[in-house]
Amino acid sequence: MTLLDLCDVFWIMKIVVMSDTHLCALTEEFAALCRRHCSDANMVIHLGDWERAPILDFMEQYPLEAVAGNMDDRVIKARLPATKVIRAGTRRLGIVHGWGAATGLRSRLRNEFTDVDCILFGHTHQPLQEQEDGIFWFNPGSVTMGRGDFSGSLGILRIQESIHSEIIPL
Question: Do residues 97 and 69 lie in contact, with contact meaning Cβ atoms separated by under 8 Å?
């Protein structure tokens, strides 16, 4: 094993995942949250429902991958795709916001992607981390408008040889 191989084995990628910020203007609280969680991230993924472009503009200071959501204004929808496949290390991640009723959502989202290891989505405002049929499903919940046991949350993925996930209550 070479030194380069050893570096690949021990290297861990930190990805901050957020969705459903639902902000019309940048707040100091949101900026502080981003400084706290995104400053040391290798990648930041936003899964849509930003609502207004100033939030996207602010987030572009980080190594950002993003999609638009169903509640986003036309400026965001013109700048971002609805779905995207990205690479994180050796993993292929499908990212999408989601749409429609929660019932059947994962089936609809699965039809959007082929050959991915993980599908990251938002829309439901409820965190989820679950392996199913060879796909890791991850929803970080909503940063500002959580449902269920979370008033707000974001997610952290750590990717090495496998994907490790964590939901961070806010």
Answer: yes
Domain of 16? Answer: 12-169
* CATH code of residue 37: 3.60.21.10
Digitized pLDDT (tens) for each residue of the chain, 170 residues in all:
444 444 444 568 999 999 999 999 999 999 999 999 999 999 999 999 999 999 999 999 999 999 999 999 999 999 999 999 999 988 999 999 999 998 899 999 999 998 999 999 999 999 999 999 999 999 999 999 878 777 899 999 999 888 999 999 99
Rounded to two decimals, the pTM is 0.91
Give me the number of domains the chain comprises: 1
Q: Which residues contact 72 (CB under 8 A, 6 or more apart)?
A: 48, 49, 50, 51, 80
